[in-house]
TrEMBL record, chain B:
It is a multi-pass membrane protein. This is ER lumen protein-retaining receptor. It is found in: Cytoplasmic vesicle, COPI-coated vesicle membrane; Endoplasmic reticulum membrane; Golgi apparatus membrane. Keywords: Cytoplasmic vesicle, Endoplasmic reticulum, ER-Golgi transport, Membrane, Protein transport, Receptor, Transmembrane, Transmembrane helix, Transport.
């Protein structure tokens, strides 16, 4: 799943 | 970063710039839904709060700042400088019918019940339906300026390219974010009708008018 804490996509 | 995500971001940036220039050059926001633009400003505000907390890359930071500045400048031009040209009679979509379900969904379905994560989830869900007031307005007026259709085309293209970006990232990086993918699919599907009209009419030099 998406890495928690920060989303690297705009 | 991959080619789909880069061209997607550039397509998004192009859409934002096209709209801003259209309003600025023609000194008119006729045919533009101010409600959609407020929703987009809200999407960027809730999604990019991490500007102050986590640094991803210079590209990421610069693009977020540009998106936020352009979004608020557009809202200002519509409701401030050129509000005399704002067509409020046709911009009547009930945005509360979008905001309430989106808030509920963000609180119920998210990756983590943490403030920043719920705000990010809210912005993802909201972005998928934020164009509805604009599409509704075009269906009410029955037509759209050609420059506005180019704006919508690049805006729709951006999330379509992101779908390919997610396929790429799943295959090459094992990255998968179900929330972003499902919302992105909904967002892209909402443009299908417009894409059809854009390709069959606008690209053939005709004006976009409804019913098709």
């Amino acid at each position: 799943s998406a890495e928690l804490g920060h989303h690297d996509e705009l | 970063m991959n080619i789909f995500r880069l061209t997607g971001d550039l397509s998004h940036l192009a859409a934002i710039i096209i709209l801003l220039l259209k309003i600025w050059k023609t000194r008119s926001c006729a045919g533009i839904s101010g409600k959609s633009q407020i929703l987009f400003a809200l999407v960027f505000t809730t999604r990019y709060l991490d500007l102050f907390s986590s640094f991803i890359s210079l590209y990421n930071t610069v693009m977020k700042v540009i998106y936020i500045m352009c979004a608020y400048a557009t809202v200002y031009l519509i409701y401030g400088k050129f509000k005399a040209t704002y067509d409020g009679n046709h911009d009547t979509f009930r945005v509360e019918f979008l905001l309430i379900p989106v808030v509920l969904l963000a609180v119920l379905i998210n990756h983590a019940f943490a403030p920043m994560e719920i705000l990010w989830t809210f912005s993802i869900y909201l972005e998928s339906v934020a164009i509805l007031p604009q599409l509704f307005m075009i269906s009410k007026t029955g037509e759209a300026e050609t420059i506005t259709t180019h704006y919508l085309f690049f805006l729709g293209l951006y999330r379509t390219l992101y779908l390919f970006n997610w396929i790429w990232r799943f295959y090459f990086e094992g990255f998968f974010d179900l929330i972003a993918v499902v919302a992105g699919l909904v967002q892209t599907i909402l443009y299908c009708d417009f894409f059809y009209l854009y390709i069959t009419k606008v690209l053939k030099g005709k004006k976009l008018s409804l019913p098709a």
